[in-house]
Amino acid sequence: MDSSAQHPASSSRHHRPYFTDLQISMLSEKQRGKISASQEDKMKQLACSFIEGMGEKIGFPRRTVGTAQNLYHRFHLFFPRKDFNYFDVGLSAIYVSSKMHDTLKKPRELLAASYSIRLPEAASRSTGEVDLDRMDPATVEQDRQRLLAVERLMLETVCFNFNSRMCFPYVIKLGKYFGASKETTKMAWRLAADSHRTLVPLQYPPHVIALGGLYLAGLLSSFDPNSTPPRVDLQNTSTVHPLVTQLGNSGDWETKLQAKSADLEEIAHAVIDLLIQFCQHPIPSTHTSPRTPSSPSQSQTPTSLPRAQSTTLPLPYKPDVLMHLKIALRARREDAQGGDEERRRKRQKTDKNSSSSNGTLMQEFAGRVLGKEDETVRFLFGPPRLGGDVASPQ
């Protein structure tokens, strides 16, 4: 008898804590489909705002909210956006994150909180809460089953690895290490929190994100108040914040803290892009425009959107001022690296070295079908080159 008929096919999948720029670009493009990049960015921010609203409604700590946003971004590196409503994915991300950080809430509690955000007309006028007993039991049960189904897929994207480290403790410790003021450290903490609205946590470890938050806080504190409009002169040591001088240049701190100045700059660019987007298109409030004929059905789309618990800075800067900061950073980096040509060669070398890893990555998640398992999968907690502990076959 054919042995393949007796034993189902099996494979192994490795947990990948971080991804390269090229890997994220490849995976995002594949899952984006026909959705434009601007539409994708809008969906990301709507989902992150929904998660923020859930965190504020239930009272989750920042670590739970940040991890949930990171899980949402990771999920859509492997599953198409068109196949899932961002409410379902965001709710499942909150559920998984609450397990990771021991802030667990039952699915019914999460559904009740989500209904009060998505369907405010169903909430009590006195308490603002939704009584699930007064809602259609079939609808509630259907939503609960969908939450659990997406949760399973989300756990597969992290290979059932519940370890999660956050950048926030590092912001406090590194702020003290570099002698930053409380105001600067607070600003860095809020910028690090906002970084979870981007793909930065999928690319860099927590301590590097903390350093990036401190670096950007220094940059935003370096605007010359005497210039009109405000400008940052990175060559003027009398107006530049000390953190910019320390972290913006290579030194012994890179070896000691296992970070690179170039990585901090990339993080700064990502968060500045987010701030520019917020300036141009503010986060949706609880009052939105009327639904259009192209909007999804009411079972999936609320009549109002959550007002996120704002972690963004009350920046007085305009988009063109922040854009000037990006240009100044690029110009300084080009001078330090010998221009665009040298940087392009370095990036090509890095992409070439990671091409085999990219191929393995795409093969691991090729052919995933929702709700179907035709093989036994062994989920490994370590990256492919490191191996790692083996989780139970799923």
Automatic annotation (TrEMBL):
One of its GO terms (molecular function) is cyclin-dependent protein serine/threonine kinase regulator activity. Residues 283-316, 332-369 are annotated as: Disordered. Keywords: Cyclin. SUPFAM superfamilies: Cyclin-like. It holds the Pfam family Cyclin_N. Residues 49-156, 169-273 form the Cyclin-like domain. InterPro entries: Cyclin-like_dom (IPR013763), Cyclin-like_sf (IPR036915), Cyclin/Ssn8 (IPR043198), Cyclin_N (IPR006671). Residues 283-307 have a biased composition (Low complexity). Residues 332-343 have a biased composition (Basic and acidic residues). GO terms for biological process: regulation of transcription by RNA polymerase II. CDD domains: CYCLIN_SpCG1C_ScCTK2-like_rpt2 (cd20546). The keyword Membrane does not apply. Belongs to the cyclin family. This is Cyclin-like protein. It comes from Pterulicium gracile.
